[in-house]
Write a structure and sequence with these properties.
Helix content is 6%, strand content 55%. The protein has a 22-stranded antiparallel β-barrel. The protein has a 5-stranded mixed beta sheet with strand order 1-6-7-4-5. The chain is mainly β. The chain is globular, with a radius of gyration of 25 Å.
């Protein structure tokens, strides 16, 4: 399929004809869309007191991306890379910081609800579906003054939709196939939205897969995704039920490749009931009741063949563990807004995440050094990796927006949070936005944010891979930021300078036998950097989008991340055709090998492309190619199990049909 796809791409590019544009989105319109997630009130890009990138559904569909993880590489400040702990998923970082393999430092909201699991506080399931996204706001800078923990370095605020009568069919390399359907119905006073999606692949093939230093040949990361959503709305009242399921096989799990053994399966179910109304003149009240349930099962090779021979009486079989993660959360949010300038909010919730495992060796005896440890090929030994810990959370916040004059706006905010077992925290925020002229605005802000230790960071035990530390304190960050936003004609550009100071930072450490744990840093760490973005038309048919990040300095613990990143997208469009060529740059990074030595990974550019053709207003086809030139490149592993870095996918082609019926 690879060569046919390249031929089709060349042919499509040669058939371009100039007609009335159906794909174009005015950048002037983009400058006036509402950003809600930064202040909980509608703000334009010039008014919002944050560094923000906003993408709408049409813009996302024009890019060669399939998931949120793909999209992040085009956003300034973000890095999205493989990490080796989970099959077929990427971890991501914002502004040069990432702890372990979970994405704890950035809060993801989907229609106002956290999209995080209750065990690591990372993303609930990999490959977050963006097919029915209406708008995504990438808000950089601390958000704890509104959202509490995990809005540490930024917030991704996702608003979804239920497109009426839309069908998407996809097919591509590695027996990849996908089908999704969405509809919106009107029944009397009720609006009903329905969405279903299935996507599967026989596995992205890698040139090699190293497991504990041994080359196991090619590996394919087989995956199946399921997404379902149902929404019923009647004026002030809205009820929604969503489900996301993922099954992955083969590939890297805890930085080990074991074809036909490594399997992980995740399920995420949410239910919410939201009600809002105007209580009196100028006062609006909205409340949300919600429940979230998260499940993950992982079957993996935790230690290679022969690793336990000396402690098991000569048994050479590898250590195989079947780990069962469970998590439930229940909560209530209340928000009051008075004349759009004053917000007061309340959040109450509780969650728990028990974790257990079954193994073919007695892990409890291994942890207690009770040798020789027993062996059972039927995996008959159970262990409780995390006991039942119920975590209670309380959050209260206040925010005031002050208009001093037509040119100067000021924002003040403060939030109080209390987490059982880890204590309380205050998160202040101050910002000023000054409109120099109709084209330029200057923004200055100071904010503090915190992140409470996750359940696995505190309590995980009874395993040879990772241990918790019950003495961890919440980590905090103090952020100073200066932003210049320029809008002229149909062009938008933004330049940001930020400086972060991390106190009691939680870092991952690797002890003997590659055992991972967490600790608070003894001394504050800082990083400083610049971010730039540009969106501008070059002609009536060509648009250019640029984004880049450059760190003036980084914390010593961030060696796995690049100090320079960038992206460029050149798009062509007319009435029937839309085509783009894009490139992602990932700068030099480092990783630890098994000898605890840092090894350099040279930076590289990765090219992608997407071509679309519209037969009419209801029918469109596309061809998407990722890693257009089949570039061989690698990413830094999180731990130090591997001697070589992680390989990344090569050339991949995907075709699709979108039909509005």
């Amino acid at each position: 399929m690879r060569y046919w796809s390249m031929i089709l791409l060349i042919l499509f590019s040669s058939w371009l004809q100039a007609e009335e544009d159906l794909f174009d989105i005015s950048l002037d319109q983009l400058g006036h869309i509402s950003v809600m997630g930064a202040t909980l009130t509608p703000k334009t890009l010039q008014e919002v007191p944050n560094s923000v990138t906003v993408l709408r559904a049409q813009q996302i569909r024009e890019l060669p991306v399939s998931t949120l993880e793909d999209l992040l590489s085009y956003i300034p400040g973000f890095q999205s890379v493989r990490e080796g702990d989970n099959i077929a998923s990427n971890t991501y970082a914002l502004r040069g910081r990432r702890i372990g393999s979970a994405n704890r430092e950035v809060l993801i909201l989907v229609d106002g609800m956290r999209f995080h699991n209750t065990f690591t506080d990372g993303i609930a399931v990999p490959r977050l579906d963006i097919q029915r996204v209406k708008q995504i706001e990438f808000i950089r800078g601390p958000g704890s003054a509104i959202y509490g923990s995990n809005a540490f370095l930024g917030v991704i605020n996702i608003t979804t939709d239920y497109p009426a009568g839309e069908l998407l069919i996809q097919g591509g390399d590695n027996l990849t196939q996908g089908l999704s359907i969405s509809d919106a119905l009107q029944k009397g006073d009720y609006q009903i939205g329905i969405y279903a999606r299935e996507y599967s692949s026989d596995g992205v093939q890698y040139a090699h897969g190293e497991s504990y230093g041994e080359d196991v040949g090619r590996t394919g990361e087989k995956s199946i995704d399921h997404d379902l959503a149902l929404q019923i709305e009647n004026g002030r009242l809205m009820a929604e039920l969503t489900y996301a399921g993922r099954k992955n096989q083969n590939g890297y799990l805890q930085e080990s490749v074991a074809n036909q053994t490594n399997v992980e399966e995740s399920h995420y179910l949410t239910a919410q009931l939201q009600y809002g109304r105007e209580m009196m003149a100028g006062l609006d009240i909205s409340g949300r009741l919600y429940a979230r349930r998260w499940r993950r099962d992982a079957l993996l090779v935790a230690a290679p063949e022969g690793a336990l021979v000396t402690v098991s009486g000569g048994q050479t079989a590898p250590l195989i563990s079947d780990i069962s993660f469970r998590g439930d959360e229940y909560g209530f949010n209340l928000l009051g807004t008075y004349r759009t300038n004053t917000q007061i909010g309340l959040e109450l919730s509780q969650d728990e995440s028990p974790v257990g495992s079954r193994s073919n060796y007695d892990l409890l005896a291994l942890m207690a050094s009770d040798f020789p440890i027993a062996y059972d090929p039927a995996a008959g030994y159970g262990a409780e990796l995390i006991e039942r810990h119920v975590r209670h959370k309380l959050g209260l916040f206040w925010q005031q927006q002050i208009v001093l004059n037509e040119s100067l706006h000021v924002l003040l905010g403060l939030r109080y949070d209390h987490y059982s077992a880890v204590g309380e925290n205050f998160s202040p925020r101050m910002a000023a936005v000054y409109q120099l002229n109709p084209a330029d605005s200057l923004k200055f802000s100071y904010g503090e944010a915190f992140r409470a230790p996750a359940q696995n960071e505190l309590y995980l035990g009874n395993n040879p891979v990772q241990r918790g530390n019950a003495d961890l304190k919440p980590e905090t960050v103090q952020t100073y930021e200066a932003i210049w936003t320029h809008m002229q004609g149909n062009g938008i550009s933004e330049l940001s300078y930020f400086e972060n100071r991390f106190v009691n930072g939680i870092e991952q450490v690797v002890a003997g036998n590659n055992l991972r744990s967490f600790q608070n840093t003894a001394h504050p760490e800082t990083n400083r950097g610049l971010e730039y973005s540009l969106q501008t038309p070059l002609t009536d048919s060509f648009n250019l989008r640029l984004a880049g990040s450059y760190f003036l300095d980084m914390a010593p613990s961030a060696f796995r991340l690049a100090d320079k990143t960038g992206s460029a997208v050149l798009s062509w469009h007319n009435s029937q055709w839309q085509a783009n060529l894009s490139s992602i740059y990932i700068g030099d990074t480092e990783y630890l090998n098994r000898q605890q030595n840092k090894v350099n990974i040279t930076g590289t550019w990765i090219w992608h492309s997407k071509v679309q053709y519209s037969f009419n207003a209801d029918t469109r086809v596309f061809l998407q190619i990722n890693n257009l030139f089949d570039r061989q490149y690698a990413s830094a592993p999180i731990g130090s199990v591997l001697n070589n870095p992680l390989p990344n996918p090569g050339f991949f082609a995907l075709m699709g049909l979108i039909w509005h019926y």
